[in-house]
Structures are given as structure tokens and as C-alpha cells.
Design goal:
- This protein has about 525 residues and is an alpha/beta fold.
- Among the domains are: about 55 residues, no CATH class; about 300 residues, Metal-dependent hydrolases (TIM Barrel, Alpha-Beta Barrel).
- Strands 1, 2, 3, 4, 5, 15, 16, 17 and 18 form a nine-stranded mixed β-sheet that branches.
- The structure holds zinc ion (ZN).
- It comes from Pichia kudriavzevii (Yeast).
Length: about 525
């Protein structure tokens, strides 16, 4: 017994074609793909013993999205999100696979014991298939191989203070050691690529040669003097990616920084530009520069830059990929492609994330880098927290938890912005959010494509349906996003996971969670 679904518009290997997909709900696999919309009485349907057949025309059928960068925060900070609400949010946006980040849950996924704690808390609570990244922290080199053998997709490390004490930062020297340890293994090292300039002179010739430095126009740091902008970028007090201990101790990071740098006295902590100045593009370039140096020494392991926000690093990424031929991949996020610093209101800390959302000009250049294949994937970096930690009433960007809630928003966001402003097609989105993210997580043999033998994961998308994002209607545990009120074109009307419907517009998510935990070894 099998099922079938068809449409005049099915995304198959880079084209939109008429097709009928035959699949098994039992095995969860695609059995056949016929490049035609079959009639109800087609003998082929009898041959395959198709009991349920639906023609979805003119809706678009695409592979379920694979979001490789999601913080579900369970266990330990379950009040921030959790497996049920996070994976239901994913399902509501056509996402059928998420990979959970190793930090912000307690304990972090940095050894086998902690991975098992994570798996125990995830079991039976996931609405979509869920895999796991491990963490690379200063004392866990011996844990890397056991974690690979246990099924983590790879490891993420921070090159700047992560701001959560259980997940300390690492140095380039340590990255070299880690690359040595995992050599020859099917895995991937990934980095939160921000690194302050403490050990780098901005006039370093080699560094600047491969960096596209933009002129820092006045409007960019409006309200700040150049000296203040420079001081913000140099204050170690402001550099933790997340100011968790400051929030918990009710301290104001900018006030602390001002003690050592009186010039910051008149800086407005509620102005987005003050926060932006504290995390300049050069932080990202500095980190990526160091990562490329490490990769040059150990060019056999796949290395990935998470959430690239600056266009300034694009020349060095091009050099590493195209001239040096290094196995480097780069992702960016929905928010860097759809939001602009110029439009972020004062005090609107729901827009805070690290690295920060930059200028509109920068955003356009990121889209250009996607078209040129320098950036190859787009993810949510879904990273929610409680309203108290966002501190909206105070509006102090330095004292707010950074992170944007957006898992499940990708398809309509990218479709709206991409088609209206950048001439992209639905097939491009499938490449960036399905094919390439599946490849990144070592699942290119089961996920991200509509093909025989692949998982029957589908997003049914109505490109004409318009709607407006409303916080209250999201599935997030904490219903606060940076996209509230945004008018979008295109909407997911149904999500199918391994042959089973897990979400339908108007009905909501399936009664029972059907996601499995992904612990199989990477294919490459
Ligand atoms: Zn993240």
C-alpha cells in the first residue's frame, strides 16, 4: 500500500515540473517520481497499490526544508523554547529537519554524557526530524571522536566570549588541535565567526588585502562620534556575544564600559547604531581570516562559517574557496537578508542578534554572494529567550539577550524578499534551504531532494497567498519575533514528514509528534 501526491509544479533538481510522487507512509520513502500529473485512474497507481492520491495543483510541492541552525534550549532553559514548541514552529513553515545547536541548553552538547541527557529530553517530543551539533569548547578534544561516533553532525565553537559560562570560547591554536583530532573523519567544524581586534592591527597588510573594507559613512554610526564608535568596538566589557551574567545581576554593560572609557558617557544604549558600532564588520573578517589560516594547515576537514552577516569578508571567502580550493562553506540567515539596520527603531531589542543586522547596502551584497555561490545556505539561527531577557521596556541593546526567533519563517520571507527585490526563483530557495543544508549536515542521501529513495518530506507552498506575521499566531513558546507585522507573499499550507502530514494551515500541527532523532553517521 502506498500514497501519491502530484502537482503541475514540483521542484525537482533545480526545475519546476509537473510530477506525481509515489511514496510509502510505512518506510517514509519516495518510491517513484513520474514527471507527469497522473489521472486518478492511471494504471501506474494500481501497480503501486496507491490508496491515497491527491493532486495539489496549482500549489508548489518542494522538498521539506532542512534548517541546520536552530537553538531549542532544552534541557535547562526550556522556558526559552523546548523541543515541542520549536519543532512545531518548524513544521508550520515547511521545515521537516532541524539540527539543534550545542549551546544555550544546559548542559551543552560537549560530551557523550551531555548528549545522552539531550537525547533523553528530546525523545518523543519532536514534530520534525531532529539532529544535533556538538560543541567545541576548550577542554573537550577527547570527546570529539566519541561524539562523532554517537551521531553528532559536527561541532560548533565560538571565537569570542559566547556569554554563557558553560560554553567558553576557543582560540585559533585550539582550532588547529581540533582539526588534527578529527582528521579523516566524516564531520564538520563550524564557527561563530566574530573575533575582536585585540591581537590584530587594522593596518595588517595581508588582512586588509583580502578584506572589502567599506567606508563607514556618517549615517552608519549616526549619533556617535568616530572616537565613540571606535571605543565601542574596543571595549571588552561589551564583547560577550550574550550579556547573560549582566542581565542576571541586573548590571548595565554600557555603564560598566564607561568606567574605563569615559568617552562613552553620552552614548545612548537604546540606539541600534550604538550596538552596531560595538560589533563592526572587522570582527567577522578577523575571525574568518584566522579560520582560513587554520584550514590552510589542515585542508582535509570541512569547515563552515555560521551566520555570516558582513559582506566585507566575501573577498577572503572567495579566495579560500576558489583560489585555495579549501573545503569552506558559509551560511547566512533569514534576518540578514530581510532586515535593515536603517529601519530598526530605538529600543527594539527583538532585533538584536550577534553578529548584528547591518546596513541595507550590506544586505544587498549578501544576496549577491548567494547568487555567486560564495554563500551556499540560508538558515534561521532561531534563538529565542524569555521576554524578561529581551528587556523591551528598558530597550538597552547592550543589556538584552540577542537572538531572533524565526524557525519556519524562511520560505515566505525569502520568497517575498527574493522575488520582489532580487529576481530569485523558488528553485534557488530550495537549493539554499534544502539541498545545500542537507549536504552541510551529511544527509544529502536522504533529505533535501525529491527523488527515489529519499525521505518523503514535502512542503506544500501557495506562492500567491498573502499574510501578515503576527506574534500571537506563532508556535513559539515566547511569542516575540523581529518580523511581527511583516506582510509576506507565499505561505506553507501543509507539511509532510516521511509521508505523514504533520501540519496543515487552519488545522495546526499533528496530534502526535512524528519526528525522529537523527543519529545516523554522516554520509560524507
Ligand atoms: Zn546560533
Amino acid at each position: 500500500m502506498s500514497s501519491a501526491i502530484s502537482s503541475t509544479k514540483v521542484v525537482i533538481d533545480g526545475s519546476v515540473v509537473p510530477a506525481t510522487i509515489i511514496f510509502s507512509k510505512t518506510s517514509g520513502k519516495i518510491i517513484d517520481v513520474i514527471k507527469d500529473v497522473l489521472l486518478e485512474d492511471d494504471p501506474l497507481l494500481v501497480t503501486y497499490d496507491v490508496q491515497f492520491y491527491r493532486n495539489m495543483s496549482p500549489l508548489v510541492i518542494l522538498p521539506g526544508l532542512v534548517d541546520s541552525h536552530v537553538h531549542l534550549n532544552e534541557p535547562g532553559r526550556t522556558e526559552w523554547e523546548g523541543f515541542p514548541s520549536g519543532t512545531q514552529s518548524a513544521a508550520s513553515g515547511g521545515v521537516t529537519t532541524v539540527i539543534d545547536m550545542p549551546l544555550n541548553a544546559i548542559p551543552p552538547t560537549t560530551n557523550i554524557k551531555n548528549l545522552n541527557i539531550k537525547l533523553d529530553s528530546a525523545r518523543g517530543k519532536c514534530w520534525v526530524d531532529t539532529g544535533f551539533w556538538g560543541g567545541l569548547v576548550p577542554d573537550n578534544l577527547d570527546d570529539l571522536i566519541p561524539l562523532i561516533n554517537a551521531g553528532v553532525r559536527g561541532f560548533k565553537g565560538f571565537m569570542m566570549d559566547s556569554g554563557v559560562e558553560e560554553f567558553p570560547m576557543i582560540t585559533p591554536e585550539y582550532i588547529n588541535k581540533a582539526l588534527e583530532v578529527v582528521k579523516g573523519k566524516n564531520t564538520m567544524l563550524m564557527f561563530h565567526a566574530e573575533m575582536d581586534g585585540a591581537n590584530k592591527e587594522d593596518n595588517d597588510e595581508e588582512f586588509n588585502k583580502c578584506r572589502h573594507k567599506h567606508d563607514e559613512e556618517e549615517h552608519y554610526y549616526s549619533g556617535l562620534s568616530e572616537a565613540q564608535a571606535e571605543s565601542l568596538a574596543k571595549s571588552p566589557t561589551l564583547h560577550a556575544v550574550e550579556p547573560l551574567s549582566a542581565i542576571e545581576n541586573d548590571m548595565k554593560p554600557l555603564e560598566l564600559a564607561t568606567k574605563n572609557m569615559p568617552i562613552l558617557d553620552t552614548v545612548d544604549p537604546t540606539s541600534y547604531y550604538s550596538f552596531l558600532a560595538s560589533r563592526p564588520d572587522s570582527f567577522e573578517c578577523n575571525a574568518i581570516y584566522n579560520i582560513i589560516k587554520c584550514l590552510q594547515k589542515h585542508p582535509t576537514t570541512k569547515v563552515h562559517i555560521v551566520h555570516l552577516a558582513t559582506h566585507e569578508a566575501l573577498p577572503m571567502i572567495r579566495h579560500a574557496k576558489e583560489t585555495l580550493g579549501l573545503p569552506l562553506s558559509v551560511e547566512t540567515c533569514f534576518h540578514y537578508l530581510s532586515l535593515k539596520a536603517e529601519e530598526i527603531p530605538s529600543g527594539a531589542t527583538q532585533f538584536k542578534c550577534c553578529p548584528p543586522i547591518r546596513s541595507d547596502e550590506n544586505r544587498r551584497l549578501l544576496w549577491g554572494a548567494l547568487k555567486e555561490n560564495l554563500i551556499t545556505s540560508i538558515v534561521s539561527d532561531h534563538s529565542p529567550c524569555t521576554p524578561e531577557l529581551k528587556g523591551l521596556e528598558r530597550g538597552d541593546f547592550f543589556a538584552a539577550w540577542g537572538g531572533i526567533s524565526s524557525v519556519g519563517f524562511g520560505l515566505p520571507l525569502l520568497y517575498t524578499v527574493g522575488t520582489e527585490e532580487f529576481g530569485i526563483e523558488i528553485t534557488d530557495i530550495v537549493e539554499w534551504c534544502c539541498v545545500n543544508t542537507a549536504k552541510q549536515v551529511g544527509l544529502s542521501h536522504t533529505k533535501g531532494r525529491i527523488a527515489v529513495g529519499y525521505d518523503a518530506d514535502f512542503a506544500i507552498f501557495d506562492p500567491l497567498m498573502e499574510y501578515t506575521v503576527a506574534n500571537a499566531r506563532t508556535f513559539f513558546k515566547n511569542k516575540l519575533t523581529a518580523f511581527d507585522g511583516k506582510a509576506l507573499k507565499g505561505r506553507v499550507v501543509e507539511t509532510i514528514l516521511r509521508g505523514n502530514s504533520i501540519y496543515a494551515l487552519g488545522k495546526g500541527v499533528s496530534e502526535v509528534p512524528m519526528g525522529k532523532l537523527i543519529l545516523e553517521a554522516r554520509i560524507d
